[in-house]
Design brief:
This protein is α/β, with parallel strands linked by helices and 314 residues long. It folds into two domains: 137 residues, ATPase, nucleotide binding domain (Nucleotidyltransferase, domain 5); 130 residues, Nucleotidyltransferase, domain 5 (2-Layer Sandwich). Helices cover 43% and strands 20% of the residues. The strands form two sheets. A five-stranded mixed sheet has the order 3-2-1-4-5, with helices on both faces. The chain has a five-stranded mixed sheet with strand order 8-7-6-9-10, with helices on both faces. Strand 6 and strand 7 form a beta hairpin. The chain is globular and about 70 Å long.
């Protein structure tokens, strides 16, 4: 008889990651595919189907009893569409029942804590701060997408880095090593603003975040322009935390996303949380672990199985 499992999916703008977990919290398999944000990704349904299908193939003979999808862009403004996309991918694989589909905020918090109440600060492709109560988001700040917000995110860092490089080239800004780093990352000749512009506009907005490490690298190397950008990113993220955190003890504070995993922005945010609020934040496991943890809980498993799952990877 095949082992019963749940499926957890974290679908972001840059990548979609799936985890298959046994009911006791053991990891059976993981897989990833392209982005599945309904607003910025080319084919969200195909990405979801590929990630889940490959994970199930790697898991071997299993019996799926439930699943949770955390989908970037699936807030109130886009939940119905995201739910339809996820359900089509699920049914396309011949899976039984109906997965639970929500946004990536609850999944990110669940990847750092099995508690129901707390705060999560996310900075990956996008950026958002949120207060959760009883496992539900009750207050949020930003998360408005690359055009309207996501301040302090990888896309924001990359955009500011490109702007600083262009300003240095045309004489408006201070000299910065970002001129060389950005040009090299884009594969264009140094000192040619039009080449940089042309290369940037050929990149999908969600993919622009791949230039963020160049800004972090420059900041670590002591470049003043890059350091100012990373400091501004940290301040914007801390402002988001202050906007959603209650005056009373907020519960666990979870940091999620690549920008907050390591690097100058992560360091500044952690320092700011400790110095200003007396808080020691918890780093999150990858989002698919949070989604699988929630799937375990929705299928009758204890908080211990959820905690075992996320603690095993951090």
């Amino acid at each position: 008889m095949s082992e019963q499992v749940v499926i957890g999916v974290d679908a972001g703008g840059t990548s979609t990651r799936c985890l298959v977990a046994a009911l006791d919290g053991r990891v059976r398999a993981r897989a990833r595919a392209g982005g599945a944000n309904q607003r910025s990704s080319a084919d969200p349904e195909a990405a979801l189907g590929q990630a889940v299908g490959e994970a199930l193939h790697l898991a071997g003979p299993v019996s799926v009893v439930g699943g949770v999808f955390g989908v970037s862009g699936a807030g109130a403004a886009g939940h119905g569409h995201a739910e339809d996309i996820a359900l089509r991918a699920w049914k396309g694989l011949g899976l039984p029942g109906t997965p639970h589909v929500g946004d990536d905020i609850t999944v990110a918090f669940a990847a750092g804590s099995a508690a129901g109440d707390g705060v999560v600060l996310i900075s990956g492709t996008g950026a958002v701060a949120a207060r959760l109560y009883g496992g539900e988001v009750v207050r949020r700040c930003d998360g408005y997408g690359w055009w309207l917000g996501d301040e302090g995110s990888a896309v924001w860092l990359a955009t500011e880095g490109v702007r600083a490089a262009l300003a240095a080239l045309d004489g408006r800004g201070r000299p910065t090593v970002l001129v060389d780093l950005i040009a090299a990352a884009l594969g264009v000749a140094r000192g040619r603003p039009q080449a940089i512009i042309g290369a940037v506009y050929q990149i999908a907005p969600a993919e622009l975040g791949r230039l963020a490490p160049e800004v972090s690298e420059a900041a670590r190397a002591g470049d003043e322009v890059a350091a100012a950008i990373t400091a501004s990113a940290a301040e914007r993220l801390l402002a988001g935390f202050a906007a959603v955190a209650p005056e009373i003890e907020p519960g666990p504070v979870v940091l999620s996303g690549a920008v907050l995993a390591t690097g100058p922005v992560a360091d500044l945010v952690r320092e700011g949380l400790t110095r200003r609020f007396g808080i020691t934040a918890v780093g999150a496991a990858p989002g698919e672990f949070g989604a699988a943890g929630l799937a375990l809980r929705r299928n009758g498993q204890s908080i211990l199985a959820h905690a075992r799952l996320i603690d095993g990877v951090r």
